[in-house]
Design a protein that fits this description.
The complex is a heterodimer of chains A (about 300) and B (about 230). Chain A contains twelve helices and 13 strands. With about 300 residues, chain A is an alpha/beta fold. Chain A has two domains: about 5-215, P-loop containing nucleotide triphosphate hydrolases (Rossmann fold); about 220-275, Alpha-Beta Plaits (2-Layer Sandwich), CATH 3.30.70. In chain A, the strands form three sheets. Chain A has a six-stranded mixed beta sheet, with helices on both faces. Chain A has a four-stranded antiparallel beta sheet with strand order 11-12-10-13, sandwiched between helices. In chain A, helix 4 runs antiparallel to helix 5 (about 130-145). The two termini of chain A are about 25 Å apart. In chain B, helix 1 crosses helix 4 and helix 3 (about 50-75) crosses helix 5 (about 130-180). Chain B has one domain. Chain B contains seven helices and two strands, in the order H-H-E-H-H-E-H-H-H. Chain B has a two-stranded parallel ribbon. Chain B has helices spanning about 5-10, 15-40, 50-75, 80-110, 130-180, 185-195, 200-225, and strands at about 45, 115. The radius of gyration of chain B is 20 Å and the shape is globular. By secondary structure, chain B is an all-alpha fold. Classes of the chains: A alpha/beta (about 300), B mainly alpha (about 230). The interface of A and B includes residues 70, 76, 79, 99 and 103 of A.
Chain lengths: ~300, ~230
């Protein structure tokens, strides 16, 4: 196991609030991670600290075994594409690519220009004049072509249509297969990326509430649908994370796997078992702040 | 590519800001003055040259606003950013000072045919060509780095930090002026200046350590500035 990022008790306090509270996790080499959570959960702050753009209040942070702050051995191996990335006003798209090629040691020029074609970006247009979607595409191209050993995408596709997003996922997976590296995707569109993700970390209110292999995660929660009383009876004793009812019907979602015995029992009660998608799971887990925290530590 | 060179390269990509705008601004001032001089009977001496110096101050402020979030956002080390930026400013001042010095030399010979003093200005242009170059270089670099420092304060401490800084500067100046006045110091200063009049090139030399301090201060401020 090759750890590229190690975070231990990381905390970031601002004047009147705690943005990141005692967070610990690690990232291994050559995996695709999903860093998920609601707006303001602290994801972006964590990514800023990993890339030494913001400073931790306390805790330990190591990237490639070293402190990333003012450390070229680390910084040259990182690429962080964020929604709010700024570009100089007078830069054209081609200027961004040209400068990026000198910033990122693994830059692949041919790949960058192939992506420009894919996303149909006008090379000579000023970045300032690009539409929101095109601006996002510029970030995505830099992120992919940088081939940085740790590449972080924070909400990279604001304004991009479904076709372009699909293109991003395809190119990412193709290139990842040929040039494995650690990729972190932070996004709201969990369903779209859930197939890409190998490991999922969910942040809520500045804390890690889930840190699990994506494969493990599938089937970690279940939903039963059927007559309200029967569904409730079936779920009794389990950690319920969501309830919905309509008339006499109810759907109850709870943590935990269902074994063969559970399934037989559900069938007897006339209950249907529905899978819980990653998106549903994250939505449930992050909807209320405290109630669900123990649910995760199963 | 070396990181500092990457930063210089990043600045040079902004051709409009570094290579075109300063000369467009100075050039338009020059053309207007040329027109006036053509109609005027006597010799015209003008301070239009100041426009490029002011541009440097603004340019120093703007360059940080434009490039710091970009560069550090793309994981450039802050120290490399500052060194690369100061190197760019020094190179730019050096080359612009050569242009101004040459224009001054042409003007001294020709007066542009209309007896205009625009680039070659009495006290500022005393001494040999090297001295003239040094005056232009010193002023421009000081303006650029001074603007960069002001922007660094803003980046680190925000708007309130800027207010506090300028209030602090005015307080210090007020105290200094007050102390000189109460001790009848102005006479002494005046006498000293009369007996040891510094040349413009010497003043430029005195300015240089200040420019270096500005650069160091910017580095210290940006070292811990978030993006």
């Amino acid at each position: 196991m090759n750890k590229v990022v190690e975070i231990n008790g990381l905390t970031k306090k601002y004047k009147d609030q705690i943005a990141v509270n005692n967070v610990s996790f690690m990232l291994e080499a050559n995996k695709i991670y999903g860093l998920l959570g609601r707006n303001g959960a602290g994801k972006t702050t964590i990514m800023h600290m990993i890339t030494a753009q913001a400073f931790p209040t306390s805790g330990e942070l190591k990237v490639f075994g070293e402190n990333p702050y003012e450390n070229n051995r680390v910084l040259t191996q990182l690429c962080f594409i964020k929604e709010s990335q700024k570009y100089p006003d007078n830069y054209r798209v081609i200027d961004v690519l040209d400068v990026s090629s000198t910033f990122f040691p693994n830059w692949d020029r041919e790949f960058a220009f192939a992506l420009i074609e894919d996303f149909r970006l006008p090379l000579k247009r000023r970045v300032k004049k690009l539409s929101r979607g095109m601006l996002s595409a510029v970030g995505i191209i830099v992120g992919l072509a940088s081939r940085a050993p740790v590449t972080i995408f924070d909400e990279p596709y604001l304004g991009l249509d479904a076709v372009a997003r699909g293109l991003f996922y395809d190119r990412l997976l193709d290139d990842y297969a040929e040039n494995p590296r650690t990729i972190v995707l932070s996004t709201h569109l969990i369903d779209e990326v859930s197939k890409l993700l190998e490991h999922v970390i969910v942040i809520n209110s500045g804390e890690v509430i889930l840190n699990e292999d994506a494969e493990e995660l599938r089937g970690q929660a279940s939903t039963v649908v059927g007559a309200a009383a029967k569904a409730e009876a079936f779920a009794m004793g389990r950690t319920i994370i969501h309830r919905e009812s309509m008339g006499g019907l109810a759907s109850v979602t709870f943590m935990g796997r269902l074994d063969a015995e559970d399934r037989r029992q559900a069938e007897e009660l006339g209950l249907e078992i529905a899978p819980v998608s990653l998106q549903q799971l994250v939505v449930h887990l992050t909807k209320s702040n405290h109630k669900n925290k123990e649910a995760v530590s199963l | 590519m070396n990181r500092i060179r990457s930063v210089v390269h990043m600045h040079m990509k902004d051709r409009l800001g570094w290579f075109i705008l300063p000369w467009v601004i100075l050039g338009s001032s020059f053309v207007v003055n040329l027109g006036i001089a053509a109609y005027a009977e006597e010799t015209i001496t003008t301070g239009g040259l100041a426009s490029i110096y002011i541009y440097m101050l603004v340019g120093g402020i703007v360059s940080l606003v434009q490039t710091y979030p970009f560069a550090v956002g793309f994981t450039m080390r802050r120290k490399d950013y500052v060194i690369g930026t100061l190197a760019t400013m020094a190179g730019f001042s050096a080359y612009s000072a050569i242009v101004l010095m040459l224009l001054g030399a042409i003007e001294k010979e020709t007066g542009w045919g209309v007896d205009l003093n625009f680039f070659h200005l009495g006290y500022l242009s005393e001494g040999n060509l090297l001295a003239q170059w040094w005056v232009h270089f010193g002023i421009m670099l000081n303006m650029l780095v001074g603007g960069f420092l002001i922007s660094s304060i803003h980046r680190k401490f925000g708007k309130n930090g800027m207010f506090a800084f300028f209030i602090g500067i005015s307080l210090i100046l007020s105290v200094v002026i007050f102390l000189v006045s109460t001790n009848d110091g102005w006479d002494a200063i005046g006498r000293w200046l009369r007996d040891n009049p510094p040349t413009a090139a010497e003043l430029s030399t005195y300015l240089f350590p200040l420019t270096v301090i500005f650069g160091f201060a910017s580095h210290l401020l940006l070292r811990k500035a978030a993006v």
